[in-house]
Hints:
This protein is an alpha/beta fold.
Amino acid sequence: MNLSRLLLVKQNFPDRSIGDIPAEAARQLDASGFAGRVRPGGRVAIGVGSRGITNIATIVRAVVDYCKAHGLKPHIFPAMGSHGAATAEGQADVLAHYGIHEATMGCPVISLLDVVPLGSTPEGIEAFMDRSAFESDGVMLVGRVKWHTDYIGKIESGLFKMMAIGLGKFAGAQRYHTHAFRLGLENVIRSVGRQVLKSGKILGGLAILEDAYHNTAQLTPVPVEVMEKKEEDLLRLAKSWMGKIPAQHLDILILDEIGKNISGAGMDTKVVNRGVHGQYNPWPDTPLIERIFIRDLSSVSYGNAVGLGMADVISDRLYRKIDWTPTRINSLTASTPAAIRTPIHFPTDRECLEKIWSTVGKFNAEDVTIGWIRNTLELSPVLLSENLLPEIRKNPILEVVGTAQDIEFDAHGNLISMLEPAVLAHVQ
């Protein structure tokens, strides 16, 4: 199996990172006027989701401190639908892993699955809200605005989605995705979000935008009066910053890991060009990718392997780590059973590559084009096969680091990764 050698390639995206995140968060919140919308001494529920958002604990702590500075009584609650295996304990554990618990935040974390009905939308969708949030004097949402893995729209992932699927907990998430089968997910998110706003409980949200390196790039207070329109504007901006795999066509894409902490679909479908319902290459302006090989499951995905069904081959190592209870719950709640279909799998990385390369329409292994990333959050540096060098040289944001390296396997037949932090530090 004489596969092409690999080049370590840096993508020199614009660095939009905020230097002092607590100070910027405090500045934005002080200008928001959110505290003035709650009676003195009132209780504020701060909703936080399950995604692996950069600096999320720091940002949430800034919201807690803002509330306290204005004489309010904050608590944090998980706004994450069916994640954490759809249990109160599991959702609290997800937040704790991100450093969000009472000791670090200086306020209680209240995790419940109980919901309060908020009536039905004009489309006949019954809306719900986390009970601890509903019984507070006001709700603040903290979430990242970005593209969604299932569809293209003017509102995708962000505060509106958190108001709908996040605040609705397991009971709401299940119903909303069922309605989405007929109405489309964006329509459901907008409809339920508007119904939640009618409750009068939402004070506003702090929208987080990340750059292509997934640095915290912008913190924007979003008041309820303009939330829908403002989120559309923020999504357009976030999409313009999106990082991509720097190749027009790959025969094989290797991912070191997938996980719920990385993407709601385990891996960002708009990076790997797959659909959660099994579609190959459905997204425009995205590299054409023939085969996907996933090596492992993130240690902080809690065994949830949603997304493995979008791969063509996986390692037995990943397969053994799957906890089918949260994986099934998440997939069935989202009405995406194809996302957890089991691909073919083999004991070693070497076998996975040996079996899959000949399925891409090429007779010689050295002609196969390869891309390799740690996960879909980390798109610089990447590994690209040497046979892509003419294309690499045409892209002004790309920089080849070092010389081409042979693909190497350890004594067990597994890839020796050149993307591990310790290896990268040595190479660069």
